[in-house]
Write a structure and sequence with these properties.
The complex is a heterodimer of chains A (191) and B (191). Chain A is α+β, with helices and mostly antiparallel strands. Chain A has nine helices and eight strands. Chain A is globular. In chain A, 33% of the residues are buried. Chain B is an alpha+beta fold and 191 residues long. Chain B folds into two domains: 142 residues, Jelly Rolls, CATH 2.60.120; 47 residues. Chain B is 49% helix and 24% strand. In chain B, the strands form two sheets. Chain B has a four-stranded antiparallel beta sheet. A four-stranded antiparallel beta sheet of chain B has the order 2-7-4-5. In chain B, a hairpin with a 5-residue loop joins strand 4 and strand 5. The longest helix of chain B has 27 residues. Classes of the chains: A alpha+beta (191), B alpha+beta (191). Chains A and B meet through helix 3 and helix 5 of A and helix 3 and helix 5 of B.
């Protein structure tokens, strides 16, 4: 919980009273590899703070093709936000790629608290800003950066990614085929 | 009812004191087609409330080619969040695709207000939530819809888009080549 405190304060410094009101909303949960934290079509009620493990979010088109949207490593705020904000079924699934530990937070209750406490409203602002920027960067990468640069960026963020998840998941995240990923890695590790 | 009050009501109801403080932030400016709102390298941070018109943000891809990143269709609120938060000069340019009626205010002063006035903080929550949902939707469309459907989606959103923006910019926005776009339009309009 101390980690959590530090993590939240980095977004926005919270007075003791605000933290106290927030803590009852949090619950620690563990998941196994391949568990889905949020499934397709599920109406989410919580957002999550990832403390251990790796999660991926993905979407499936009507031909059954999978597209990995994001990879989450600790410490990150994650969850099916768009569905959460609109109280709609999620179009994304959130899947554990490894064993996972996270902290769940009831979103409705959090927003009710934010309505009563300006410090929590401002915390929420900071979280939203960060989520927005992350997503904007991600879309930017997928549209403008070439696959090799995206691979290098991923390796920079998560150097041991290849020890943690299989190649085909990495390829999906980079929006390339496993064959293309092989070629990229071969090229890079030859030099 | 004043224009800004009307604009804000789409998101949240402010107290009359907060509304007055919020209104004080803004000056009205009318822009012509192709006018630049932010230039690459500038670092003044503004919050834009666009009541009428269409604007866009533009980035350069790795070949130095212009690429339309986001299209804002009035009424709409936007800012360059990256530069506001990280103090970086704008990596993107924001310009007008049509004549636009704009209310501009200092983003820094807006943030100061969100820290003092709770309902303005909640208003900002709502701006960010909307921006996030739109961005998430765009990411989904880019990954799961084929090129024809992406074009049709845009036409559905802004039917006269071709009047306001060159075809090569539309193509780059939809993540396709100009040739692909030509083919699609030929197919769609030959029916």
């Amino acid at each position: 919980m101390k980690n959590l405190l530090k993590f939240l304060s980095e977004f926005h410094p919270l007075p003791e009273k605000s933290l106290q009101s927030l803590f009852p909303l949090f619950q620690i949960k563990s998941y196994k590899k391949d568990d889905r934290i949020t499934d397709f079509g599920e109406v989410p009620t919580h957002f999550f703070i990832l403390t251990e493990g790796i999660i991926r979010s993905y979407i499936v088109d009507d031909k059954g093709k999978e597209f990995t949207r994001s990879l989450y490593t600790p410490m990150r705020v994650t969850g099916a936000y768009s569905a959460l904000l609109q109280n709609r079924p999620s179009t994304l699934a959130y899947e554990c790629l490894t064993g996972v530990k996270l902290i769940t937070c009831d979103f409705k209750k959090f927003k009710e608290l934010a309505k009563k406490d300006i410090e929590l409203a401002n915390l929420y602002v900071k979280i939203l800003e960060l989520l927005y920027l992350r997503m904007e960067k991600r879309i930017f990468e997928l549209s403008i950066m070439d696959a090799k640069s995206r691979y290098l960026k991923l390796k920079k963020q998560i150097p041991n990614i290849e020890n943690l998840i299989p190649q085909y998941h990495i390829a999906s995240y980079l929006n390339v085929t496993p064959v293309q990923l092989s070629r990229i890695r071969k090229d890079l590790y030859k030099s | 009812m004043d224009v800004i009050e009307q604009f804000v009501l789409r998101y949240y109801t402010l107290s009359s004191t907060s509304l007055k403080e919020f209104q004080k932030l803004f000056t009205q400016k009318n822009y012509k087609k192709n006018d630049v709102l932010y230039r690459v390298g500038e670092s003044k941070s503004q919050l834009f409330l666009m009541t009428e018109g269409i604007a866009r943000s533009v980035v350069m891809d790795s070949n130095g080619k212009e690429k339309t990143r986001t299209i804002f269709n009035g009424p709409s609120v936007f800012t360059s969040l990256t530069s506001n938060l990280y103090g970086e000069p704008f990596a993107t340019e924001f310009n007008c695709l049509t004549e636009a009626t704009m209310y501009e205010g200092s983003f820094e002063n807006f943030i100061k207000l969100t820290e003092k006035r709770h309902d303005i903080s909640i208003l900002y929550n709502k701006f960010l939530e909307e921006a996030f949902i739109n961005m998430q939707e765009k990411a989904t469309i880019l990954s799961t819809l084929d090129a024809t459907d992406r074009y049709l989606y845009l036409k559905n959103r802004i039917p006269d888009i071709e009047k306001h923006i060159q075809l090569n910019h539309i193509a780059s926005y939809l993540n396709m080549t100009s040739i692909q776009l030509s083919r699609i339009r030929k197919k769609v309009y030959s029916k």
